[in-house]
Amino acid sequence: MRKAELRKTMLQRRRALSVDEVAVRSLRIADLFFRHFPLQAGQTVHVFLPIVKNNEVNTWPIIERLRLEHPEVRVVVPVTDAAQNVLTHHHLTEESVLVENAWGIPEPKDAQIVHAHEVDLVLIPLLAFDRYGHRVGYGKGFYDRFLADCRPDVVKVGLSLEPPVEQIADPNEFDVPLDFAITPVGVWPEAIP
Question: Is the separation of the CB atoms in 30 and 57 below 8 Å?
């Protein structure tokens, strides 16, 4: 299936989910993240903040657990720079003041900037992904540009409310593939201990 068709189909499927179903699936994803991805002191983890109206994976359980169980891990979140068509990255603390942008994404105001090359692991929002690590988002390319600026060894983990599709028919040369993806029922590739 092509990206445009997948985007449309997955947005419709996601809109059909109840708030409770998104919450249950998000908690399963959070549990699988902590079970399969050991964290170390000094790491920087980049986490997207969910667009609630779009029924995105709720990442707040991950953030709260990082704060409680891994205070030595720095949590960084994106801020959208629509004028430059890029993401900037900011340290999220308990004191951070969040303001919703035009798309309904909560973003920290006046938070410390963190450069992409400092990030060790990125949690990436997905509408869909395939068994080859190709992914479909909203189609603006923000994450492709961000991931291209990261170190080559950054770990790229997609979070998806749905299982993988067999194959995305039209990946392009600028697409940065996933290393892993977490769904409510498991981690792709399945070989992860």
Answer: no
